[in-house]
Amino acid sequence: MRCSGWSSLAISACSGVAVALVLAAPAAAHVVATPTFLASKSSGSISFEAPNERSDPMTSFTLSAPDGIVIEHAHPVDGWNGTVEGGAAKWVEGSLAAGQTTEFGATLRADADPGVVTLTAVQGYDSGAVVEWPVTLTVVPAAQSPSENLAVAGLVGLIGVLVVIAIALLAWRRRPPSRAT
Fold first, then answer.
1. Which of 32, 56, 84, 166 is exposed most, by the fewest CB atoms within 10 A?
2. How far apart are CA 174 and CA 161, in angstroms?
3. Would residue 171 count as lying in a domain?
């Protein structure tokens, strides 16, 4: 049986969220992507929340993409200078104090087939220390045409209305006769 584009997208997105939650559980306070998915064969803006979990200031943040993911643009962040070179975006000349969090944004393009991909986030510190984190994204199937999604939504809505009517009729037929006093 062939799944509709809408249900395939929903299944992929839910699977990706479940995988992301399982993988992110041990690393809950580390670099986190929002949203955690990107449609195949398209571009999207992703934010990367980066906390400084060390005692010295964070002075650089680098995001590297695997094959199939292209970093098109590094979004500006106040106090940081962002650039894109090759398969990486890098923000430098800024400073993030210990215990603080900031967001770095990038526009990514998914040339990869649907599935899970892992980017690498590297935080550099004033002391020279470097911390590397895996950041998981799910590439979901490209969106179907709106007419396909609308047809599926209409069919599901019609089935729902018919079920509600059937339940109401059964309840009405089973109600006890009223007693005259």
1. 166
2. 20
3. no
Identify whether 66 is part of a domain.
Answer: yes
Range 102-130 burial, b when 16+ CB lie within 10 A, else e: bebbbbbbbebebebbebbbbbbbeeeee
Q: How far apart are CA 160 and CA 116, in angstroms?
A: 34
Report pLDDT digits (tens) over 70-87: 999 999 999 999 999 989
Q: What is the pLDDT of residues 154-176, one digit of tens each?
A: 767 778 778 778 777 777 777 66
Look up the CATH number of the domain holding residue 66. Answer: 2.60.40.2230
Question: Comparing C-alpha atoms, which of 180, 160, 163 is closest to residue 171?
Answer: 163
Looking at the 3D structure of the chain, how many domains does it have? 1
Domain that includes residue 25, residue range:
5-140
The model's pTM: 0.65
Q: Helix (H, G, I), strand (E, B), or coil: what is residue 142?
A: coil
Query: From the first residue on, what is the mean pLDDT of each consecutive set of 10 residues in the chain (181 residues)?
Result: 49 47 48 94 96 96 97 97 95 96 97 94 96 95 63 72 78 68 60
Residue 131, Cβ neighbours under 10 Å: how many?
16
User: What are the strands, taking DSSP E only, across 14-166?
Assistant: 32-34, 37-39, 42-51, 58-64, 69-74, 81-85, 88-92, 101-110, 115-125, 130-140
In a domain, 167, yes or no: no
